[in-house]
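Side project, low priority. Logging it here so it doesn't get lost.
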Amino acid sequence: MNKNLLPLTLGGLGIGITEFVMMGLLPDIAKDLKVTIPQAGHLISAY
């Protein structure tokens, strides 16, 4: 196996996991900040 493929795969996995975790936490973040879910999504995107 190409030894450059493993870091690329792990990097892609790490980026994907962080995005999916934020989607799952979005309703809780919106509730804590007392904003709507779309507004919380914009705040997270801006961050």
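Brief comment: Residues 22-47 form one domain.
Revisit when time allows.
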